[in-house]
Amino acid sequence: MTAALSKPKRLPRKPRIDSRASAIRILGAWLVGLKGRGSRRRLCWVSTVTALVVCLPMLRPGDALSAYARPLVWHVEKLDGAQVSSSDADVAVNPASVVKLATSLWALDKLGPDHRYQTVVYAGGPVGEGGRLDGDLYVVGGADPDFHAENAFLLAAALNRDGVRTVAGRLLVDERFWIGWERGGEGRTEDPAARTRQMATRLGRSLDPSRWDRDQRRAWERHAQAQRLDPASPPQVSVTGGFGKGSPPSDASALVVHRSQPLLSALQRFNVFSNNDIERVEAALGTPADLAGYLRAKWGVADPLVKFESTSGLGSNRMTARLIVRLLRDLREILAGHGHSIDELLPVMGCGPSTLTKVFPSLAKSGGAVGMAAKTGSLINTDGGVAALAGFLRTADGELLFALLAPRSGREISAARRKEADWVAGLAKQFGGPQAATCDYPFGHSDDQASVSSAGLFPASVADTKNRPE
Fold first, then answer.
1. Which of 194, 368, 369, 446 sits at a 20 to 30 Å CA gap from 171?
2. pLDDT of residue 67
3. Sign of the four-CA dihedral 161, 163, 166, 171
């Protein structure tokens, strides 16, 4: 059984011409020649002929990309725990975005799959005739990692029902409120005050249709259709006093409570498209070092085998292939204990768009791994780059848990992905072929299961006790 997945021999590196760079240089000379006369124009024609004769043959499909010659790292187990095959499975490597699975386990264990985050809106003054709030409007975030324009529409509608249509003062939010994507540590504004002002501005624009951009208008159209609302009559709360950072005073009154979709649904969204804003769950749980400590204590392993610089997979992180498979097993167990399927957390090949279909187009087209529920991971520069894949492969002979990594594949990541695709297809074939999934858990939106309700106009000091992790 093991021989079919034995280590590939190291192949000597072949000298190669960077065909893309050559083509770019020749194209540049051609463009310069177009602007010249005489000898320059002749150079243009010479360059054009050279490009056709020399470069085009080098750009044939399959020839322009070099082969990934390094050995893959993997570990495979059956559902009953029996080892199928393994190669360098105890060497700690960078797992890239497979780290999101560790973050998901942490959140599910500590908060539970049905946990909902609360966001509370407060009035800093009375609401007069015409729906005018004479004071500031405050938003106290509950660290909801997946709050978007659609959720702001829910808030606006609830505020309208409570008679609020205009805010004479400011819209102020705290540091535990976020709206929209930031791309994790890559795109997040470092200054906390500036970041909070940015979030307040985003929310203010989402509450007021007169400030919408194209993306918000599209979000409203989808939201209105899903909620069966009149698309021509969006809710509206206009803020005239600006946007910023602030917390409600003790005598402020709570107006509306927004409860997010269940945590599991949010984690599915983060994993299906490998969104680095999964880092936001740290606010309710701890730091990347705390995540590493949680896993080391859970598994009784040494420090070098599990180390995290982020909870998204950005940066330099470490896990072994064997421990990644153990992580998969723990995820399956904790979800099953709550009556959920692993397909509610991970993208599934053949069940809609995801990073799986994006980075493994050949598998998606051929059906060589249909039904596979797995998480991808990609880094180009950090630690020389890595292409990672970990998950559950359904086959005719049973389900397999696997972790597969191509270390130091940054400049050759496309070739590494092709090599990994062949490995996965070969593994599925070895066990009777892949088995399709039922696709019972489609990817949703942040407002699909969210809810809003009136807070009953009680003081902020009382309402704040209800805005804690459940």
1. 446
2. 84
3. negative
The ranges assigned to domains in the chain are 20-58, 73-113+265-273+287-430, 118-260+446-466
40 to 25, 43, 414, 421: CA distances (angstroms)? 15, 5, 38, 47
Query: Mean pLDDT lowest for which of 27-41, 222-236, 268-282, 337-351?
Result: 27-41
Q: What is the pTM of this model?
A: 0.83
User: What is the pLDDT, as a whole number, of residue 34?
Assistant: 52
Other C-beta atoms closer than 10 Å to the C-beta of 357 total 16
Six-digit token pair at 314? Answer: 């950005």
% of the chain exceeding 70 in pLDDT: 83
Burial annotation 308-322 (CB, 10 A radius, 16+ → b, else e)? bbbbbbbbebbbbbb
* Residue 89 confidence (pLDDT): 98
Question: Are domains 73-113+265-273+287-430 and 118-260+446-466 of this chain identical in fold?
Answer: no
Q: Residue 24 corresponds to which tokens in the numbers above?
A: 């770019």
Tell me which range, 46-50, 60-64, 310-314, is most confidently predicted by mean pLDDT: 310-314
Phi, psi of 431, deg, nearest 5: -110, 35
N-to-C CA span, the chain: 47
Distance in angstroms (rounded) separating the CA atoms of residues 381 and 402: 25
Cα-Cα-Cα-Cα dihedral of 215, 218, 223, 228, to 10°? 160
Cβ neighbours of residue 235 under 8 Å, at least 6 residues apart? 153, 156, 157, 159, 160, 207
3-class DSSP state of 59:
coil
Report whether pLDDT(52) > 60. no
d(CA 354, CA 376): 10
Give the confidence band of 266 by pLDDT, cuts at 50, 70, 90: very high
Q: Which pLDDT score is estimated for 92?
A: 97
> What would the pLDDT profile of 188-246 be if each residue is shown by its tens digit?
888 999 999 999 999 999 999 999 999 999 999 999 999 999 999 999 999 999 999 99
CA dist 77 to 155, 398, 436, Å? 47, 11, 20
Cα 199 off chain centre by = 19
Residue 379 three-state SS: strand
- What does CATH list as the number for 118-260+446-466? 3.50.80.20
